[in-house]
Amino acid sequence: MVPSFMPTSRHFSARSFARDVPEIDRAEVLALVRKQIALLDLDLSGLTVVVGAATGYQAVTAAAAALAKASRVVALTRISSRHPSLAAAATATLAFANFANVSECVEVTDRIDSRKWQDVDLVTNSLQVGPISRSLVELLPSHAVVSLMAGPWELRPGTVDFDACDEAGIKVAALNLNHPAVDLLPEFARLCCTLLDDAGVDLRAAKLAIVCDTPCASSLEYALRERGAGVSVFSHPVLLTDDAWDVIVVAMRPSDKPPMDINSLGRIGRNSNQTLLVQFSGGIDRSAASYFGLTVWPPKRPGRDQLGLPLDVLGAAPTVRRLTGGLKAAEAAYRGAELGEDSVGFLVKARSATIERQRT
């Protein structure tokens, strides 16, 4: 039973799901970008870089590459009258490039001619550029580098064709989220706490389970314990004990099928249909959750490969560290620098990517 002093998930005072990301302070963000470029010694001199055009803090990616002295930066978007937000991405990307005085190096376009891909040195994985399919890989020169701009465990299977990259001799660079200049795992934990706050969860009294198979597990556990929650961690839903949990945080790797499936949700519902499911990462079968009377937060399903809240919610610094770190990992791979456990990034081969998928 749920203790009498603990409000059930039905009584959590949830905030409105819609959150306003603060308007960008361009001067502040530009200062952060310059600081990270200097800290990482990011040097893209002479390189042609393909990034995604975006809104919010993601809009700085093209300008960051240009500020790191890339000779040409192509920001891809898919502008159409049916998707005005994509037009906003082009506008935001160019506006920040203008503010940073690097607009002459930045081109925003909705496509790259197939022959022009031979001129590309670095390709960043983003919604606008990806998926990095075999057909795209075959257009790239063999010296090109694909930057995941993330840890490999953050990607859904099929986002990058690692086999095609290996066969073409193209390096794939992942971001080391633990590197001191990036340090994103504590930020993910802070973001998870914010998501729980939005759900109206009083962590000081919550009996909480974390279902997590990512490197975030220890950071999430530490942050939630610091906030007063009683926390247990499980690496997969099938290992979740049959307790009447107040809250279950789902923090799994992206996958084609939700790891929190009808069987796992049935077990949870039988123990207590008052349990609140919080989708931080990975999938939840929301139809099954509804069938068993379980509440899921956020109420709107996160987009493909997206967290329950965008990293932008925490301000500019975490996103800028991710973007510049991803560019640095790609630059280091391009220049043949040694990449390992203590570096800003590491190389991902088809075999290691397969291992990641098997873990999922």
Tertiary shape: globular
Question: Hey, roughly how much beta strand do the residues contain?
Answer: 5-15%
User: Structural class per helix/strand content?
Assistant: alpha/beta
Mean pLDDT comes to: 88
| Poorly predicted regions | 1-11, 354-360
H/E element order: HEHEHEEHEHEHEHEEHEHEHEH
- Biggest sheet architecture: 7 strands, mixed
How many strand elements?
12
Model description:
With 360 residues, the protein is α/β, with parallel strands linked by helices. The chain is 33% helix and 15% strand. The chain contains 11 helices and 12 strands. Helix 2 (61-67) runs parallel beside helix 3. The longest helix is centred in the last third of the chain and has 19 residues, at 316-334. The relative contact order is 0.15. The model is unreliable at 1-11 and 354-360 (pLDDT under 50).
List the helices and strands and how they pair.
Elements: H1 26-40, E1 48-52, H2 61-67, E2 72-76, H3 84-99, E3 106-109, E4 122-124, H4 134-137, E5 145-147, H5 162-168, E6 171-175, H6 185-198, E7 207-212, H7 217-226, E8 230-234, E9 247-251, H8 262-271, E10 276-281, H9 286-291, E11 295-297, H10 316-334, E12 345-347, H11 350-359
Parallel strand pairs: 1-2, 1-4, 2-3, 4-5, 5-6, 7-8, 7-9, 9-10, 10-11
Antiparallel strand pairs: 6-12
Keywords for this entry:
alpha/beta; 360 residues; seven-stranded mixed β-sheet; 15% strand; disordered N terminus; 33% helix; five-stranded parallel β-sheet; disordered C terminus
